[in-house]
Amino acid sequence: MEAINKLIEIIKKAKSLVILSHVGPDGDTLGSMLALKEILAQLGTIDKIDAIIVGKIPDLYTFLPGIAEVKNPGDKNLYQNYDLSITVDCGSIDRLGDSVDLFRNAKASANIDHHVSNTNFAQINWIEPKASSTGQILYKIIELLKVNLTKNIATNLYTAILTDTGGFKFENTKPETLQICAKLLEAGVDPTFIYKKCYESKTLSMVRLQARAVDQAVFLDDNKIAYASVTRQLLDLFGAYDDHVDGISETLRQVNTVEVALVFKETIKGDTKVSFRSNGLNVCEIARFFGGGGHKLAAGCTVQKNIPDSINEVLPIVKKQVSKLSLNS
Fold first, then answer.
1. Host H or E run for residue 298
2. What are the structural domains, with CATH classification, of the chain?
3. Residue 196, Cβ neighbours under 10 Å: how many?
4. CA distances from 98 to 51, 93, 135 (A)
5. 270 with 297: CB under 8 angstroms?
6. Cα–Cα distances in Å, from 126 out to 30, 90, 111, 250, 309?
7. What does the angle CA 59 – CA 63 – CA 68 come to, to the nearest 5 degrees?
8. If we measure between CA atoms, which residue out of 226, 224, 273, 219 comes closest to residue 250?
9. What are phi and psi of 206, to 5 degrees?
10. CA-CA distance, 123 to 107, in Å (whole number)?
11. What is the pLDDT of residue 288?
12. Which among 92, 102, 127 is positioned nearest to 17, based on CA atoms?
């Protein structure tokens, strides 16, 4: 509670505040950021509150209330030195990308997150690894600050929780998770609408990209390991964006023989972003070895090499861990 109390104390004194999402934004970081912005705006004591996204808003999340008001790090209307910067769902400072200076230049900084691999990079670190999502953590601040739970706040928090629990199917879905979601529904959330937007609203280019990637996926070690490669050329072929890759690793993980699924995606810089999904193996430990992190069954990292070299570097470690898992089971 010490971190929470310190954060609330600084929030009540702040006149300018910036909320930062992580690169490659997902439903948790975006929903949490937008919910927090409205929560803090209700206080009526902060003159300027900005919400920052690095890059393009993913197509899946353009429905989120308040998303049109987010800004990029290069926006001319931003302050250079905010009283407080708050990161949401960021496991490490490198996940801030081009918004890192906004974080560092603020007079005070806070880090709200649920990743077990969080590096505690802020002055105030509110980390709850047992929470399903950052959205679940932020529900507490509504009660602590005694603000109104509006339909817009509830929609953003529900989206954060829904997407980080995989539609409530991951093991991080706990009784408290669903109890909070029940309260969000009471505030006016439309669960069918949000589910359709998050899971049943894919563009044709996204479907074609994912179909090709899955079709060309490689299966190893008695089909216990599956991986797909997504190059810039493949993205361009289908007119797809980086966020259209989301979901490929989850599809591969669902194959009944697979223990670990990976996606190797070429970045604009030529590096390789690796996404891990598991049915039991702790892939967070593997991601950490390469400077990444995440959760036990879902993690990621960036390897400073091209896709073929990244595959050659990552796969031997994955194979070794899967082999250990098989011996112990």
1. strand 298-303
2. 2-199 (3.90.1640.10), 204-328 (3.10.310.30)
3. 12
4. 14, 11, 23
5. no
6. 18, 11, 6, 29, 37
7. 90
8. 226
9. -65, -45
10. 10
11. 94
12. 102
Helix count and strand count (H, E) for the chain: 12, 11
- Tokens representing 129 are 């690894």
Q: Please, which pLDDT band fits residue 8 given cuts at 50, 70 and 90?
A: very high
**Per-residue pLDDT at 303:** 98
Q: List beta partners, residue 226.
A: 219, 261
Radius of gyration over alpha carbons of the chain, in Å? 20
Predicted pLDDT of residue 179: 98
Separation CA 277–CA 274 (nearest Å): 10
| pLDDT number for residue 324 | 85
Quote the CA–CA distance of 327 and 324 in Å, as a whole number. Answer: 5
Single-letter amino acid code for the residue at 276: F
Model confidence pLDDT, tens digit, residues 124-137: 999 999 999 999 99
Dist CA 61 CA 164 (whole Å) = 14
- 276: helix, coil or strand? strand
Strands lying side by side in the sheet with 84-88: 48-52, 16-20, 84-88, 108-113, 124-127
CA pair distance 298, 172, nearest whole angstrom: 11
Q: What angle (nearest 5°) sits at the alpha carbon of residue 311, between those of residues 253 and 273?
A: 70
Q: How many Å apart are CA 159 and CA 170, to the nearest integer?
A: 15
Between CA 91 and CA 117 the distance in angstroms is 6
Give the chain's largest Cα–Cα span.
60
The DSSP element (H or E) to which 293 belongs, if any, is strand 293-294
Residue 329 has pLDDT above 90, yes or no: no
90, two tokens: 């960021």
